[in-house]
Amino acid sequence: MVAELSRLRDQIDEVDKQMVELLARRLSLVAEVGEVKSKHGLPIYAPDREAAMLASRREEASSKGIPPDLIEDILRRTMRESYASENDSGFKCLNPELRSIVVVGGNGQLGSLFCKLFKLSGYDVKILGSQDWDRADEILADAGMVVVTVPINRTDSIIRQLSNLPDDCILADLTSIKSEPLQAMLESHAGPVVGLHPMFGPDIASLAKQVIVYCDGRNPEMYQWLLEQFRIWGASLHRISAIEHDQGMTLIQALRHFTSFVYGLHLAEENPNLSQLTALSSPIYRLELAMVGRLFAQDAQLYADIIMSSSQNIDMIKRFHARFGDAIALLDSQDKEGFISTFGQVESWFGEFAPRFLKESQTLLRQANDTAHR
User: If you placed Cys at 197, which of 7, 213, 228, 326 could pair as Cys (CB 3.0 to 4.6 Å)?
Assistant: First the structure.
């Protein structure tokens, strides 16, 4: 038995080595693709090409008795690495005549990411950090674009220090709230203005499939090249008004972060054995636990600023608290019929999204289970 297993495992190892060689070849080809895309200004992410390729590979896998989901999982992971490697080829510069880009807060994590991307696209990039304000007039004197990426609680005051920019300079911010920063930029600068919110953190390897929200401010024709530059980087753009954006972020960010904060607080007060808790966890609970733990591995000041950035966030959290109380009342009264009826109402509200989210979550859970160490 041992000899037979050893022989089969040797053959598997040989196949694995061939797979490594094939992946190395694929990444090499991707690097060449990246150079072509960079030369011609093509986006690194082509959704139609990706969808067609995956559909074709799934069909081929099925014809050979291979589960289609298996080949899709492998290819999606490979493509994620491919998108990251395409960054190394740089990107076509869509506005080569632009004067220098000044990133206010460019030494921070998100600022550093955008500095890197602008440099990869061939732009002249300068940084205005917290220690550089004695040289601010010199740094900003010939700016073609100024991007503000500083903590939320300092964004308004920093923007209002930028009142002497060249008239044709584009002024943008990367803040997770939009109404107040956009208004501050419009009041401080008479030239083109746009509000931006990258819906991702600074630790991403590539902008492929990442979303950048933008809110028009003034003279949008003057920053269309910037939006197209984002697309070349691989990002998907979503246009929205500042008011609608902030309403959405109340649910997407403020409420979500606050409930994670409270759940983490509850766990800390209950003080369970965390190692034992993770050992007992199903993939879905481990994933939920990981998302809560992720919050507490980051900057407390950032999340305090996001949650407390507006009164509408607080009002939303209070309404959530009231509904939490209503749900607890169902438990106190052992009202199972009321619980099921309420469940049905929410299920109806989700509509076709419920089965869609079920399918998406199943993929995430499989991936979470794959990475677990028991």
Answer: 213
